[in-house]
Amino acid sequence: MLKDGPLNTLLIRLGILVLRLIAPSSIIYTLFRLSHLLNFASYDTYKNNNTFGPPYVLLPDIYLALEAAFYLLFALPRSYILNRAAPAPSPLKTAQERREVLERTWDATPEPRRYLEGYFCGLSVKVLRSEDVRDWLRWRLWGVFSKRKEAGHGDDGGDDGGGDVVVDEDEVNDYLSYTEEVLGHRFREGRSGRSFMAVTHEPVVFVHRPLLWYVLFIGSADTLACVMLWMYGFRFYRPSRWTFFKSFPLRPVVLLSSNSAPSETFTYWMLPHTSKDPKHQPVMFVHGVGVGLHFYLPFLRALLPHCRAHGIGIICLEVNQVCSRITNALPAPLQIVAEINQILEYHGWQHRRPVLLTHSYGSVIASHLLYDIGSREKFGPLIFADPVCFSFHPPDVAFNFLRRKPKSASEWQLWYFASMDPDVGRCMTRRFRWQESSLWRQGVEGRGKKYREAGRVTVLLSGKDIITDVETTGAYLTRSRGKDGGSDGKWYRQSMAERMDGKWKERKWTGKEGLEVVYLPGLNHAEIFEEERERALLVEIVKTYSLPA
């Protein structure tokens, strides 16, 4: 992330402005030049005066014409494809499951009123009406979303994602009463006329990227990453050579590689696991939103001596849908899990219990794997760097990533280069389901007891993270299980001082506990991979987990 400051803010905004001006400038310039070509009355004059000059003078014309065509003939039509209706979610099947999720939601929330107000974009709970909250509950627990005429939003055709799901209104009323009890507030009947934030059913908002961005920046970064990983000893695996045409910028490595992957969706780089010691565990790494593995090269380079010395293998999974590329949509969670299992089995890692290391959006993939009973048994220790999976049930991540108006340099960087990317936007809206992507503390804290050393978990939180609410996430993951407000109590009933006890920030990582949370003060999102000291700590954690005593 860029360091916040006036100069960086000015530079990033100027850079964004230049990139955004390329498309309209190209269209205007191309139309102007075409008007000369089509001006038959004076064509001979232009030809005789050599208006267009020697061939090399036409290069800017050709480039700007390509930019104009790229926007008009590809980007504009594709915006309709990106905004296709979201696939129906997998609803919670029983009332018991829905009740459990709702109770977990409120128990993981220190400030319930602020939580609900966040979903309604800051609207006070005193203004909300009972039907507003009922709609929110139907969406949260059944996946049913409707825009109501009486809410002042018109009608979008009724149910927009719930499919044939049948909602038990008595159950909804029961959950409404429970919510009122938690908030200590009784809602008045009717509607407020305001809708809540349900990004899966709202238009995919994005900012067009010029052809120059894809070819020069993304293509170059990917090519450099491929060369460096090959030099590090990694091998590239691709589904089939036909996938060369399914992603842009085009990747020559797809044609050059002879290694076929069992997955239909994912490409990956692999450092073979050569250790014969059954206690030596390989590593699977899943990156976050960005430009792919290029950003993580310093980390992988720092980890390489350990891997070579002990024969530790690494699989770096590429999620191209969040790599600023033009590609197909991310498949459903069940298919993601199935394909990753196929990769593990293809390389004989299913019994190796590999260390699962994820960064940012990669924690969503980890959530899918841990929800699947068969998959969770195949993985050993877990490492979450800047995870978002523990923060999906509150509205903070959705608001910060998709709705916040940027002010600082890092926020502008996040906004343009991640949030407003067309394919990333689709992945975070149309292809996103909070229930299937959220990971609760209960999903990780018991692994240490069940699997002992193979079940250890480390969560690394950056103190100045601009995406997640680190204070709440850290306090939630480290809450006491005592009778005076632990997991058996109600977090939101405690005083603010008790809720947000900051002692967890002072704890040092030992590598011996079941669940450890490491606080990294002064770091922004993703800077753990940029700062040498914190990167060295992450490398040490991977070393410890891959070589259990």
TrEMBL record:
Task: Keywords in alphabetical order, please.
Answer: Membrane, Transmembrane, Transmembrane helix
Extract the InterPro entries matched here: AB_hydrolase_fold
Whether Transmembrane counts among this entry's keywords is yes
UniProt keyword annotation of Transmembrane present: yes
Q: Which SUPFAM superfamilies does this entry report, sorted A to Z? A: alpha/beta-Hydrolases
Signal sequence region: none
Task: List the transmembrane segments.
Answer: 12-32, 52-74, 211-233
The name under which this protein is listed is AB hydrolase-1 domain-containing protein
Q: What is the lineage of its organism?
A: Eukaryota, Fungi, Dikarya, Ascomycota, Pezizomycotina
